[in-house]
Specification:
By secondary structure, the protein is α+β, with helices and mostly antiparallel strands. It has helices at about 15-45, 60-90, 215-230, and strands at about 95-100, 105-110, 115-120, 140-145, 150-155, 160-165, 170-175, 180-185, 190-195, 210-215. It starts with 14 loop residues before the first helix and ends with a helix. It catalyses: 4 Fe(II)-[cytochrome c] + O2 + 8 H(+)(in) = 4 Fe(III)-[cytochrome c] + 2 H2O + 4 H(+)(out).
Length: about 230
């Protein structure tokens, strides 16, 4: 989760988020180099005492300021296209979970298990246990096995919502009447927090997303317990 006064992204807990962080650093270094070069050129132009009113154009300068931006765009576009294809790649998921947005809570359905589904509401402040986070904790977490490809089908029942977990590199719109899908792999066990990222009404800020990644044997025990309670 995010920390007070945090300037950068959250730590990556999925291979996709690691790729996004690497691309962010790559693009940021290119932007920094361009900014330094432009600042240097402006400084030289302001401080120089030389002038030549007879030069109307320069073929060499025209070539340079056409070729350099083209190379820069290629250096940014190629890694970006690679990540876009990685984000759309969903191969043989081990588990499929359907997330449905409502005003104002999430409901989850494990489509590989019959009768396994639940609603997830935000825990009120007075019900929080020590160590739990205000506005981020839910009464039912979406539990998934660690190091397993998970497919999430996302839709909404009433208005636009958005299912987003920053540390997993996921942000997918929940559109009424439309079924979107995304996928992720958790690299390590943990609890990962997110929130609805599409303004959906008065209680938009009160529908958190909590994904809990556990070892496979713990996940199987959890599913057995949930099916018994159902």
């Amino acid at each position: 989760m995010a920390h007070p006064a945090q300037l950068g992204f959250q730590d990556a807990t999925s291979p996709l988020m690691e790729e996004l962080l690497h691309f962010h650093d790559h693009a940021l270094m290119i932007v920094l180099l361009i900014s330094v070069m432009v600042l240097y050129i402006i400084t030289c132009m302001i401080t120089t005492k030389l002038s030549d009113k007879l030069i109307l154009d320069s073929q060499e300068i025209e070539i340079i300021w056409t070729v350099l931006p083209a190379i820069t765009l290629i250096l940014i576009a190629l890694p970006s296209l690679r990540i876009l294809y990685l984000m759309d790649e969903i191969n043989d998921p081990h588990l499929t979970v359907k997330a449905m947005g409502h005003q104002w809570y999430w409901s989850y359905e494990y489509t590989d298990y019959e009768d396994l589904g639940f609603d997830s509401y935000m825990l009120p402040t007075q019900d929080l246990a020590p160590g739990q986070f205000r506005l981020l904790e839910a009464d039912h977490r979406m539990v998934v096995p660690v190091e397993s490809p998970i497919r999430v089908l996302i839709s909404a029942e009433d208005v636009l919502h958005s299912w987003a977990v920053p540390t997993l590199g996921i942000k997918m719109d929940a559109v009424p009447g439309r079924l979107n899908q995304t996928a992720f792999i958790t690299a390590r066990p943990g609890v990962y927090y997110g929130q609805c990222s599409e303004i959906c009404g008065a209680n938009h800020s009160f529908m958190p997303i909590v994904v809990e990644a556990v070892p496979l044997n713990h996940f199987e025990a959890w599913t057995s317990l949930m099916l018994e309670e159902a």
